[in-house]
Write a structure and sequence with these properties.
With 253 residues, the chain is of the alpha/beta class. The chain has 10 helices and 7 strands. Bound molecules: NADP nicotinamide-adenine-dinucleotide phosphate.
């Protein structure tokens, strides 16, 4: 049956770019399970290669996780790569958002990523890799994007600890931290008000295809943290040197 990669959030943006990058890489697994809710998009992607297996699942729910769990049990694949890319954010102050949206963000960005990792690890062997897509939002609390930034801090912390847990098994874990990337993300985060980033974020916005390729390379080098782009690397260094309170005061007043 050969090696299998699993990519969540594969119907658009960075997840889709990961699938394309895998297909173009010299080291493409024999099978790529791609998953998201929009099956029409996944089926369109499956036209790119017979290696692609589209799986419709809302992984923000336990029923969606069960779909993947059952597929793993049925097929017992040899998983060489898990890319936890599905994620979402909702901009606006906490008090102005529907509480259900808060739990939706946490369920997808934190719970699904963690539970899916736990479900997939038993199907991995030495040399396998996990890529968890975090964000540079993890480095600084973000008023107005509070839950999202906190959820990405969780992803970084989770990935770092998991990398230690899996070291003896020879399985690597890479937390990928991009800054703004041009995808559907911002439109969804602003409820369709702004499809593009504004201000300095617009200037810094990265290309999803380049990010995906660079992230695969970082994972192949077993990097535990991969911060993408010079400006984001600088932000990372500053966030390590400066007290959080002072940074918040400078950025948000
Ligand atoms: N774009 C950025 O500026 C940026 C920056 C840093 C980090 N990131 C992170 O990068 C990752 C990918 O985001 P993106 O920019 O590619 O955004 P995107 O284009 O909106 O893609 C999000 C993906 O997640 C899937 N998804 C959303 N809710 C889901 C659910 N309940 N169950 C299953 N799949 C679900 C979506 O597919 P369906 O809607 O078809 O289900 C889609 O494939 C996220 O973790 C995000 O936090 C993005």
């Amino acid at each position: 049956m050969g090696k299998t990669a699993i990519v969540t959030g594969a119907s658009s943006g960075i997840g889709k770019a990961f699938v394309k990058a895998l297909l173009e890489s010299g080291d493409c697994p024999d099978t790529i399970w791609i998953t998201a809710r929009r099956m029409d998009r996944l089926e369109k992607m499956a036209e790119l290669s017979s290696k692609i297996v589209p799986i419709k699942a809302d992984i923000g729910s336990s029923e969606g996780i069960d779909i993947l769990k059952n597929k793993l049990k049925e097929q017992t694949p040899d998983v060489s790569l898990l890319i936890n890319c599905a994620g979402m954010g909702k901009r606006g102050n906490i008090a102005d958002r529907d509480p259900s949206e808060i739990s939706d963000v946490i369920s997808l960005n934190c719970t699904a990523l963690s539970v899916l990792s736990a479900e997939v690890i038993p199907y991995m062997s030495e040399g396998a890799a996990i890529i968890n897509v975090a964000s540079t939002a993890a480095f600084l609390p973000q008023p107005g994007f509070t839950v999202y930034a906190a959820s990405k801090s969780y992803v970084v912390s989770f990935s770092r600890a998991l990398a230690c847990e899996l070291k003896s098994k020879g399985i690597s874990v890479t937390a990928v931290c991009p800054g703004p990337v041009n995808t559907e993300f911002n439109s969804l985060a602003t409820d369709g008000k702004s499809a593009e980033f504004k201000g300095f974020r617009k200037l810094l916005a990265a290309d999803a295809d380049k990010l995906a390729k660079a992230s695969l390379k970082a994972a192949s080098h077993k990097r535990r943290m991969f911060v993408y782009g010079f400006s984001q690397k600088a932000l990372h260094v500053v966030s390590k040197l400066m007290p959080v309170g002072l940074m918040l005061k400078i950025v948000y007043g």
